[in-house]
Amino acid sequence: MHDISTEYKENFEGKPPRLSQVEMTELVLPNDTNLLGNLLGGRLMHWIDIAGAMAASRHSNRIVATVALDSLDFRHPARMGELVMLKAKLTWVGRTSMEVKVSAYAENLKTGNVILTNQAYITFVALDSEGKPAPVPPLILETEEEKREFEEAEERRAERLKRRAKG
Ligand SMILES: CC(C)(COP(=O)(O)OP(=O)(O)OC[C@H]1O[C@@H](n2cnc3c(N)ncnc32)[C@H](O)[C@@H]1OP(=O)(O)O)[C@@H](O)C(=O)NCCC(=O)NCCS
After folding, report:
1. Closest ligand 1 atom, CA of 94?
2. Whole-structure pTM over 0.70, yes or no?
3. Which pLDDT score is estimated for 158?
4. Domain HotDog ACOT-type spans what residues (predicted)?
5. Which of 135, 140, 53 is nearest to 92 (CA)?
6. Is the CB of residue 72 below 6 angstroms from any atom belonging to ligand 1?
7. Phi, psi (5° rounding) for residue 111?
8. Which of 40, 51, 64, 114 could form a disulfide with 56 if both were Cys (CB 3.0 to 4.6 A apart)?
9. What distance lies between CA 147 and its chain's CA centroid?
10. Ligand 1, atom 5: nearest CA belongs to which residue?
């Protein structure tokens, strides 16, 4: 018989970020662009949110809600006909919240050139069946970079909570 309690316990022993990371690829079509043929910022933010939510859901095995999106810099435009690759990876978890780093890259199919266009940190909260915050498994940090990201995420969280408290 399938033992749910064992599965719950195993999940709560923690998961490394590599088990929940997500790679998503989109083709920039005419409907995704502005009059200059560049990818619309709003469309990119939507893709970033989706990629981040999939990683957070994979980690928590729950539906998640976005509670904060840190500043999003547009470093380089993605053009019509290019591929946009989104890589989402967990950087930090609290009790019910998770921070995900999403990096967006544009790939020119004619030249093969790939450039980093955007980076964002998004916070999601795992929800139970009643839409209330639910505990998430700990994050097992395996690399030096993951340990550094986790420490930096603690500082970003403190800033976010300060902003939230100010209302
Ligand atoms: C998600 C929601 C149910 C959480 O309810 P809440 O009353 O804020 O719950 P809490 O205060 O217990 O916060 C839950 C967690 O989120 C964190 N959190 C909440 N707002 C945050 C913010 N702005 N930045 C960072 N973390 C935040 C809390 O610190 C807590 O983390 P922890 O459990 O890891 O310590 C509620 O905020 C909500 O419905 N928000 C709207 C979500 C939404 O509509 N998103 C867009 C579509 S998905």
Report:
1. 34
2. yes
3. 92
4. 18-130
5. 140
6. no
7. -100, -20
8. 64
9. 17
10. 133
Per-residue pLDDT of 71-128, as tens digits, reads 788 889 999 999 999 999 999 999 999 999 999 999 999 999 999 999 999 999 999 9
164 lines ligand 1 (CB under 6 A): yes
Name the CA radius of gyration of the chain, rounded.
Answer: 17
- Report which protein residue has its CA nearest ligand 1's atom 19: 67
Residue pair 25/85 in contact (Cβ under 8 Å)? The answer is: yes
Q: Report pLDDT digits (tens) over 85-100.
A: 999 999 999 999 999 9
Across the chain, mean pLDDT equals 92
Q: How far apart are CA 36 and CA 9, in angstroms?
A: 52
135 lines ligand 1 (CB under 6 A): no
